[in-house]
Amino acid sequence: AVTAPGVPGRRGMAEPGTAEAQAPAEAQAPAEQGAVLAAVIGATVPTGFELTAAAEVQEKLGSASSISRDRGKIYFEVPAQSLPQVHRLRSVDNLFVVVQEFKDYQFKEHKEDALKDLEGLVKNLPWTDPLKVWELNNTLKKRKIKRKKHNVQSAASKEKLNGDGEEQGTDQKDTGKQEDCAQNAAEVETTSSQDTEKTQEVASQNEEEEEDNEQSDAKDELQAGSGSESKAGEGEISEGEAKVLKFRVTCNRAGDKHCFTSNEAARDFGGAVQEHFQWKADMTNFDVEVLLNIHNNEVVVGIALTEESLHRRNITHFGPTTLRSTLAYGMLRLCDPQPTDIIVDPMCGTGAIPIEGATEWPSCYHIAGDNNPQAVKRAANNICSLLKKNENKESSTSLGIPLDIIQWDICNLPLRTGSVDIIVTDMPFGKRIGSKKKNWDLYPSCLMEMGRICTPGTGRAVLLTQDKKCFVKALSRMGHIWRKSQTVWVNVGGLHAAVYLLKRTWERAEEKRSFW
């Protein structure tokens, strides 16, 4: 694995054929009484933003990360009680706990021999600690669901007590109300300048309380689990009666030198897991998902900690080209937002970028817009969903978010010249929306108008596009107002795209018309 500077060797690594690899699990990781349970966490991240994810892990968890040779994955070690913070990372799609990694696994030439070797790995892997981490993760998920239900019930009871014939947004099934909410969000500012400081204080207090609750849950669960030792090999869980777990094995394979398919590896490895643990195989309604990641000669065995991708956290109303929240976070982080910055997404679609920005950078002001009224409506509905989610948290004050959504024309933005600090947007690829032919006219006009509203000298833009040929040509025509600073190659739904970081020059942009 390509290792970031200062990264210690990862636990759970062994070369095949060595004494360490052949040793039983108990001998490999002796469990000391009272020792802190540590976990090597693997995270899938947007391809191209591995360094961004590693920087976030270092900043928020204090852990150094190593970047896999298989693009789109990072690994880091944390105490098991830090799992709640791990789930709150903004740049990761999926999480898993690493059972063991083989950096240079030598596959046999014949299919039967290679698959038999993979089967033989199962009984020698150190399953005990990773399964404890999985159990702890499961318990925290259950407690979080209970807490959410309690919050919703308490909010409903408060409304009943306060309700003198007034309806306070509890009618979620009323679609007409949802449309009204969309229109209001499009017209009215969600925060006032007078209440900004107070709401930010309350928000930080609520986040701290939530973190403390989850942290104490993790500590309680670890202490409770330390008293009763359960062997992973017996397939038991620490909820009293023994339960036969249901599982499936998912194999992700990359490389052309393997003599077997992903399905064959998953089938045979899964058979060995079933024989070792006496678990029941179930491809849909499973308790445990065992991951077998094979990239050329690198093999990583893990246990999934997320049921669905974390990138779905903000969006409830999806459009034809909804951007992943994790990719939106990576793009925003690339332009290094500072407090009081004005950040604009002129082609916001469903609002993934501005919503992520307002959530993670609440001290900036975010403006989103689109020329499609349906897209504006979807974005407004997504903002409403976020506001309702904030209301459901235990809080006496209803929190707003520093975000406005407007319908406008990208080539004639109703914004003052030089009034915007940062522009972040996902430009039309010319496939599902628009066309490559239209992009030849659209891209230069967009860059010119963005240059006009962006602050000369300090302004910056982060733009995502798959139509790289058209963009590069348009940028060469706008070289007097935009300078390319960095390019990040990304994978968007199987398409090879690029994220461009541009810096605004001191050159004055042409003004087409007067706005004020």
What is the rounded distance between the termini? 56 Å
Summed over residues and divided by their number, the pLDDT gives a mean of 78
Helices, by number, come to 14
Radius of gyration: 25 Å
Shape: elongated
CATH class of one domain: Alpha Beta
As for the CATH topology of one domain, it is Rossmann fold
Beta-strand content estimate: 15-25%
Query: How can the largest sheet be summarized?
Result: 9 strands, mixed
Q: Assign the structural class, choosing from mainly alpha, mainly beta, alpha/beta, alpha+beta, or little secondary structure.
A: alpha/beta
Helix percent reads 25-40%
Number of strands: 16
Protein name: THUM3 protein
GO molecular function, one term: RNA binding
Pfam family, one: THUMP
Subcellular location: Cytoplasm
Structural overview:
With 516 residues, the chain is an alpha/beta fold. 39% of the residues lie in helices and 20% in strands. The model is unreliable at 1-34, 158-180, 182-209 and 223-241 (pLDDT under 50). The protein has a nine-stranded mixed beta sheet. Strands 12-11-10-13-14-16-15 form a seven-stranded mixed beta sheet, sandwiched between helices. One of its GO terms (molecular function) is RNA binding. Belongs to the methyltransferase superfamily. Its main location: cytoplasm.
